[in-house]
Epithelial membrane protein 2
Amino acid sequence: MLVLLAFIIVFHITSAALLFIATIDNAWWVGEEFYTDIWRICQNNTNCTEIDDTFSGYATIQAVQASMILSTILCCIALFIFVLQLFRLKQGERFVLTSIIQLLSCLCVMIAASIYTNQHEEIHDINRLHYQGTFEGKYGYSFILAWVAFAFTLISGIMYLILRKRK
C-alpha cells in the first residue's frame, strides 16, 4: 500500500507540474517566426506583446487563462487535502473530497484546452492584425501538455475514488 501511495503522490505532483508548465510557458501556438501562449504573442523571439483588452478576442483568452489558473490551483489544493486526509480519516471516508477536487481540476483544464481548440482561428486572426504577418503554425507543446494534464488529472481523480476502499 505504501508503494501505491507513493506512486499516486508522484503522479499527482506530475499532474500539477504539467499544469504549471502548460499555464506559464509560451508555446500554445508556434510557427517559424513567432510563438504565442495565453499571456503574450512573440515574434522573432524579441518583439513580445502582452495580450490585453486591446485584442478583440480578449474575453476568449481570459476564459482560457482563468480556467488554466483555476485548474492548477485546484490540483495543488487536492494534493494538500490528500496529505491531510491520509492521516485524518478512516478507511472508506478517505479521498472522496480529494477526488472531487481533482476531477474539478480535470474539468477546468478540459474547458481551457477546448476553448482554445475551438477559438484558435479567431485568436490567430487577431494576431495577424497586430503583426501584419503570417501566423501559419501548429499547436505547441504547452497546448499538448494541457491535454496530457487533463488525462493525468482525470486518471488521478479516478484513482482517488478507487483508493478510498483500500486498506
The two ends are 8 Å apart (CA to CA). The beta strands are 29-30, 34-36, 40-43, 47-50, 138-139. The longest helix spans residues 96-131.
